[in-house]
Amino acid sequence: MSDPVKTFYVTTPIYYVNAKPHLGHLYTTLIADTLARYHRQRGVDSFFLTGTDERGINIERAAAARGIPVQQHVDEMVKEFRETFAAFGIEESRWIRTTDAFHREGVQSLWRVLAEKGFIYKGKYEGWFCPYCNEYKDVEGHDENPQCSTHEKPLEILAEESYFFKLSEFQEKLLELYKTRPGIVQPESRRNEVLSFVSGGLKDISISRVSVKWGIPVPGDDRHTIYVWFDALANYITALGWGNRKYQEFDRYWPALHLVGKDIIRFHAVYWPAFLMAAGLEVPHIVFAHGMLLSGGRKMSKTLGNVIDPVILRKFFTSDQVRFFCLREIVFGLDGDFTYDSLIDRVNSDLAGGLGNLSSRTLTMIRNFCSGRVPTPRESVSEGMKAQVEKVRLAVKRSVSDFDEAFNQCNFSRGLESVWAAMAAVDKFISDAAPWNLAKETERMNDLHWVLSTAYEAVRHFAVLLSPVLPCGAQDIWGQLGQSGTVASVSPDELVWGGVEKGTSINEIKGVFPRMDKEQTMDQIKQSEEAVTPASGTGKSDSAAPAPAAPKAASDGVISIEEFAKVEMRVGTVQTAERIPKADRLLKLTVDIGTEIRQVLAGIALYYEPESLIGRRVVVVTNLAPRKMRGLESNGMVVAASVEPDGRPVLATFTEDVPNGARLK
Ligand code: ME8
């Protein structure tokens, strides 16, 4: 991104809709959104693409696990993704769905071009396949039950007739590309990884499946569907109208800056440029692979079930707070742990204590000491004050250029750091000058005006600069400063220090970034997480259901009797029931299930008095793995109906007498 660009095209991966969105998806998307806003603000014609990857075996299985048609499943999931992203202020230029007809047309066009140019041939493939990665895996040694190292799930043997893409022909061309365009794969560590992969030799890759029905048919051979990664990668050009008749923006915007997670760097930095070169098209501008958000030290992933639910996140935090945290706390390119704890700390220190405080103290003093009008100081002023003001002006101006430089290198945390460094300089300037004392002495009124107009200018610059990162907060501050219009359309390049209209009146002052009560918020978050699976004492915070089905699940949501038999449900009688301190929704039960007494936690405290449950016959799922909640172990799940609209749990029971331990079949 160091080249000057007249247009700017940024993309995110298109996300699999086998489960609901989580913070990882949001992360890439809100960074793309920030970059698009950043360029748009500077007058660059910008296009921001995101969307959903809706084909393949995994999606078929997810729909089967929910017992609904695939189209219905993908439609529902896409809605969920779109709503989630919108709640965080994401404003994409286009949302592509791989089930869109124009995309299908474009993918088939790309296939035809590659076939005509002789890069596709038919062969046979057999190998270990991870349905979650949608990728064949190399298995070392003679492991009979190998697992996917990313997903920790069993690999499956897949053998089928397949079309292949002649990737092996592109080794030299790709190495040449990485050499002549060293910035094409970023950051450096990922570039090295890609270089060493390609240097190790490239095998042709399988790009069709006969076993997958939910896919785009191979032109001229509809027994095959196009491999989901071939289909998915093409989205970056089909969305602009390449190979289809729907849009005409390819020449205007291509090539793109692709933002991706490091998990899919190989597809973007090796396969994708090879497909493009084969088709005679320009390769991407940059592929930037960021690190993974970790939760509890492990990659946050739907399959591992340790995801942060954006719905809960949004319930307690504003979109600005989350955007800021993701850009400031995590160095783009490196892995970073996400905790609510550190999010609240960031909000309190940088937003409430930093920007929020500076803006409200500046505005409050202008209101109190200058009748709410931005003061225009007289030129004549002490050398000391002049020097201080100049120092602040330079610090702010430097932060504008440092911010730009850092953002152009996708180093968002450094860019924000430089703004906060300037903010600290302004804060110090105000504290040292003590305007509250100056205001008491009439003869020092001009000094007071210098201090407050300087602070005002600094806040005005910060609002403009931070608008792509904090779209709502920056606009609020802009309004309070008495500035009209949208701050998002004010380019920092055009900002003139002191260029504020004389006598500008400020508007009503409101706290833009309030301080959060950490302990209370953490408690409320825990309760919300527990409430996600109401009657289950074993489910944690994972609301990213449905989990992908076990590989052998039959289609259309039908399961075999053997699969049903795996769930052991037994009759039990509640022996004791009590509330758990600080967990409003949980009850701790002990249940006699015939052979033993089990401790089970159930999220039913809002609906059942503990005393009313003692002696009650219940149904318990007895073979779930134990889970800890609030430091207590839950050994089973009490079965309940979830009654709409609020998901009220109603315990399952029997009207006839049934002994403890009897199994439900
Ligand atoms: O791979 N931390 O889709 P996907 C940070 N459909 N980012 C994360 C993340 C985490 N823990 N988890 C996911 C696919 N992401 C394909 C892509 S593109 C042509 C096809 C983000 O739903 C990150 O951007 O598994 C990652 O690369 C992407 O989501 C994977 O999303």
A few lines on this structure:
The chain is of the alpha+beta class and 665 residues long.
Structure summary, number of beta strands? 26
Q: What fraction strand? A: 15-25%
Number of domains: 3
Number of helices: 21
Known CATH architecture of the largest domain: 3-Layer(aba) Sandwich
- Counting helices, strands and paired strands, the structural category is alpha+beta
- What is the gyration radius calculated from CA atoms? 29 Å
What distinguishing features does this structure have?
665 residues, alpha+beta, Rossmann fold, Isoleucyl-tRNA Synthetase, Domain 1, OB fold (Dihydrolipoamide Acetyltransferase, E2P), 3 domains, 6-stranded antiparallel β-sheet, 26 strands, 40% helix, 19% strand, binds ligand ME8
Describe what this molecule looks like in 3D:
This protein has 665 residues and is an alpha+beta fold. The protein has 3 domains: 7-290, Rossmann fold; 320-494, Isoleucyl-tRNA Synthetase, Domain 1, CATH 1.10.730; 561-651, OB fold (Dihydrolipoamide Acetyltransferase, E2P), CATH 2.40.50.140. It is built from 21 helices and 26 strands. Strands 3-2-1-12-13-7 form a 6-stranded parallel β-sheet, with helices on both faces. Strands 17, 18, 19, 20, 23 and 26 form a 6-stranded antiparallel β-sheet that branches. Strands 5-4-6-8 form a 4-stranded antiparallel β-sheet, covered by helices on one side. It is flat. The N and C termini lie far apart (62 Å). The relative contact order is 0.10. Ligand ME8 binds at residues 13-16, 24-25, 27-28, 53, 232-233, 235, 260-261, 263-264, 292-293, 299-301.
